[in-house]
Amino acid sequence: MPHRDASPTRGVHTPPVFPLVPSGWYHVARMASLRTPREVRLGDREFVAFAVDRRAHVLDGRCPHFAAMLWRGSVRDGCLHCPLHGWRFLPDGRCAGTPSGEEPPAAARVRSYPTAVLAGHLFFHTDPGHESAPPFFDAVDPDDLLAAPPFAFEVEMPWWLVSANGFDSQHFLAAHDRRLVGSPALVRSDVVFEARAAFDVIGTGWRDRLTRLVAGPRVEMTVRSVGGGLVLVTSRVRRSVTYGLVSIHPVTASRSRVSTLIWKRAGPKLLRPFDALDVRVRADFIRAFLQPDIEAGEGIRYDRSRSLGADALLNQYLDWLSRTA
Ligand code: FES
Ligand SMILES: [Fe+2]
Fold it and tell me: What's the CATH class of domain 25-125?
């Protein structure tokens, strides 16, 4: 039974009810940064990520002995050692032994979670029995992509409202100076909600003026939410495509940590220095693009009864999400 957000509401506001931590794939970190065990915290759930012989594993974060934090332990001889009494855990979560030599009790195991590495980054799924691979962009080999340095931020907004941002078509004009052209095309399944739309770049700031000059006046965006916690964004201008992956980590029922990975397709080796600079500039523009969401979105509350016809896509998305998450 998933934990449900039971936080008191203010006034007559009645938000939809979503799990505190939706089941799904989450970004952990760059594989290269897993030299020591790493804490992963999602709402009230704790996990530990670590690598043995360059293979990554994710286990429950607390030791089944006296609940010490396993991410404060160390990896030796293929095992994760608990920092408090030294019980040793195999990557599959079984306890391989104790320093006293006593047989560990039958309950001395932690759950192990499915992991995947995409473009050098570790992801894990919160359901130990989950079998299918994590989502990625259509017809894109992660190994063909060149990454910008990832960035993350925290915002006072529940995870489900962060994920709804890309389907809040009304806010693109007010917050981002992007005017919707026509109606968004929708694709829906049990696990995916996707909207594709074109926008005219109408801002007068230097970034928008430069965007129009270099990339043209129109951008086509595809926003694909997978289970609500992972959002894949494809942004197309003329012949150039930028890929963005947003992993939304619940902190509390009303606060989220958002990890953002930005890529472009790598060109020929000769152009690699130019490509590396290009993808950094794109990430910088995207970070600036997201700033109004962080500022204007701080502490927002959603109330269906106050929505307009212009909020229809957002409402459709949240209806889908409430059936999915
Ligand atoms: S708390 Fe982990 S071995 Fe005792
Ligand atoms: Fe936005």
Answer: mainly beta
Q: Which ligand is nearest to the CA of 166?
A: 2
- Rounded distance between C-alpha atoms, residue 200 and residue 180, angstroms: 7
The amino acid at residue 61 is G
Q: Whose CA is nearest to atom 1 of ligand 1?
A: 66
**Pocket probe mutation, ligand 1, options 71, 82, 88, 110, max atoms within 8 Å of Cβ:** 82
Which pTM was predicted? 0.92
CATH top-level class for 142-324? Answer: alpha beta
User: How far is the C-alpha of 93 from the C-alpha of 78, rounded, in Å?
Assistant: 12
Q: What is the dihedral of CA 202, 203, 206, 210, to 10 degrees?
A: -20
Burial (Cβ within 10 Å: 0-12, 13-18, ≥19) of residue 143: exposed
246-295 pLDDT, tens digit each: 999 999 999 999 999 999 999 898 888 999 999 999 999 999 999 988 89
Tell me the ligand closest to 86's alpha carbon.
1
Q: What residue spans define the domains of the chain?
A: 25-125, 142-324
Angle between helices 272-297 and 206-215 (to 10 degrees): 140
Q: Is the CB of 108 under 6 A from ligand 1?
A: no
Tokens 């290269």 -> residue: 32
Question: CA distances (Å), 266 to each of 7, 143, 174, 261, 276, in order?
Answer: 46, 9, 34, 15, 9
Q: How many helices (H) and strands (E) does the chain have?
A: 5, 19
